[in-house]
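wait is this the right file?? whatever heres the structure
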């Protein structure tokens, strides 16, 4: 009955400095690399923001409306650490909190009076929006930096907590057995080149394989075939998905 928190803690003990999530955005030239430690720090900050700042509780639903970006895996990890179930925009779930990017603001700003709407600028280094966000919306780039680098939930989840709303997939099912289409061969230091959005059903299924098996992910958006080949060679990719 493995949980995400147990997996991440084990990786921190095993090899905290190794790369875990590497992100390329070819439209901006951005490259971000999160080691296990850096990823865990971001997950802790986001988890603390969700629970301590906005009162989310184990079993609540986080709707993740982000494009392919390194903050997708961060908020997935934060949700699972806190025992939240994740839904995506295609779901008919009733969310307790929404995390969105700039493109999602028009759709979600009107709901900021009834539930927390956390908006990510998607600018380099996770900074604040250049312009003020709509009234009631929370700018992640303002709130997240003041959060601690360690987070322990008051009510820690276990393997039987729901990780994904669609299909009621538990954390144990998501991390303890191969998900459909998930390239579980990217293990033991394997590097998975992922072009599918982690904040989507196919992308999250692929992402969890390396996270569960001591592999790592190279998430790329906006690259053509030749550039993908070049990135794969530079990053010593062993498998591809998406």
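ok assuming it is, sequence goes like this
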């Amino acid at each position: 009955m493995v949980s995400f928190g147990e997996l991440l803690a084990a990786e921190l003990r095993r090899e905290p400095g190794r790369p875990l999530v590497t992100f390329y955005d070819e439209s901006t030239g951005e490259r971000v690399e999160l080691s296990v430690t850096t990823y865990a720090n971001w997950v802790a900050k986001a988890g603390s923001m969700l629970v301590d700042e906005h009162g989310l509780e184990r079993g609540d639903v986080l709707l993740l409306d982000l494009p392919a970006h390194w903050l997708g895996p961060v908020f997935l990890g934060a949700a699972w650490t806190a025992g939240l179930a994740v839904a995506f925009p295609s779901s008919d779930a009733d969310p307790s909190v929404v995390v969105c990017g700039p493109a999602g603001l028009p759709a979600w700003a009107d709901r900021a009076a009834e539930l927390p709407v956390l908006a990510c600028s998607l600018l380099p280094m996770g900074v604040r929006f250049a312009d003020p966000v709509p009234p009631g919306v929370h700018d992640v780039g303002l709130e997240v930096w003041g959060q601690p680098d360690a987070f322990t939930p008051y009510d820690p989840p276990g393997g039987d907590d729901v990780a994904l709303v669609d299909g009621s997939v538990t954390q144990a099912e998501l991390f303890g057995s191969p998900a459909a289409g998930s390239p579980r061969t990217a293990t033991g230091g394997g590097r998975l080149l992922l072009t599918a959005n982690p904040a989507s059903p196919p992308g999250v299924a692929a992402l969890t394989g390396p996270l569960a098996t001591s592999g790592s992910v190279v998430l790329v958006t906006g690259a053509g075939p030749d550039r993908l080949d070049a990135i794969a060679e530079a990053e010593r990719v062993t498998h591809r998905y998406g």
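The CA atoms of residues 26 and 222 lie 5 Å apart. so i think its the right one actually
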